[in-house]
Amino acid sequence: MKSSPPSPLTNHLIDNLPRQDRASFLNGCEAIDLVFGEVLAEPGGRILHAYFPLNSFISLIAKLSDSERLEVAMVGSEGMLGIPLILGLEESPLRALVQGAGPALRMPVVVFGRHLAQSPALQALLRRYLYVLMHQLSRVAACTHFHRVEGRLARWLLMTQDRAHSDRLHLTHEFLAMMLGVRRAGITQAAMALQTRRLIRYHRGDITVLDRAGLIEASCGCYASDRRLYRRVITEGGAP
Fold it and tell me: 3-state class of 75 per DSSP?
């Protein structure tokens, strides 16, 4: 098995800023470590900071009730937490839960607002990221309704691997069920199917990706679609 290369401590959104804007923006950031299980925002709660993960990642969870929760997006080194700030809003629509501990950059809301007002390049980049995130959220809704659990599990494992920068993941049955909006029995069946195909090894919440290429093939087309869109809109700066 070929291991994933170590991740550089970087955030791709910040890296896509022009040099002068990037240097100024980084000066306004504070380096922190995100802790597994830490709640950074609650639905309806006030946003105090914008977060830019480096080698960490955050789950965005829609919560209808204590028993009705669904992960609708992830934020890792490709993005940011605090996207309502772009729209001039300081209220979080979703629960933000740290699923991958590690370093991140944090910026107070007031400082973020000042940088946003002074940098047209930052405004343009974050509008593009907002478009990408909107696409991901809409895709999750359709994917949850139309695609089989096995393909959706493969997709979310790949998304998690991308942000964890590791072949080894720890995801409990409870979290996987919430992630996909299915019962635990459905998770067990889907995980066993992927394991039988020797794409993953799964034991008591410890998952090892054995065959990434095979897992991509097993996933629904939403994974490849999300990656193409991010590359075109953010990395290459093309039209949405």
Answer: strand
Q: Specify the pLDDT at position 238.
A: 61
Antiparallel, parallel or unpaired: β 49-53 and 30-34:
unpaired
CA distances 238 to 1, 80, 234, Å, are: 35, 20, 7
Question: Domain residue spans in the chain?
Answer: 12-144, 148-218
User: Residue 177 forms beta bridges with which residues?
Assistant: none
**Fold held by 148-218:** Arc Repressor Mutant, subunit A (1.10.10)
Burial (CB count <10 Å: 0-12, 13-18, 19+), residue 167:
middle
Q: What is the pLDDT of residues 115-155, one digit of tens each?
A: 999 999 999 999 999 999 999 888 888 887 788 899 999 99
CA angle (116, 80, 9) in 5-degree steps: 110
3-state secondary structure (DSSP) of residue 47: coil
Report pTM. 0.89
Measured in degrees and rounded to the nearest 5, phi and psi for residue 140 equal: -60, -45
Percent of the chain with pLDDT over 70: 95
Question: Residues with Cβ < 8 Å from 215, sequence gap 6 or more?
Answer: 154, 157, 158, 194, 199, 200, 209
Residue 167, C-beta contacts closer than 8 angstroms, at least 6 positions apart: 1, 3, 4, 161, 208, 209, 210, 212
Instruction: Count CB-CB contacts under 10 A for residue 173.
Output: 15
Fold of 12-144: Jelly Rolls (2.60.120)
pLDDT, tens only, 36-83: 999 999 999 999 999 999 999 999 999 877 777 888 899 999 999 999
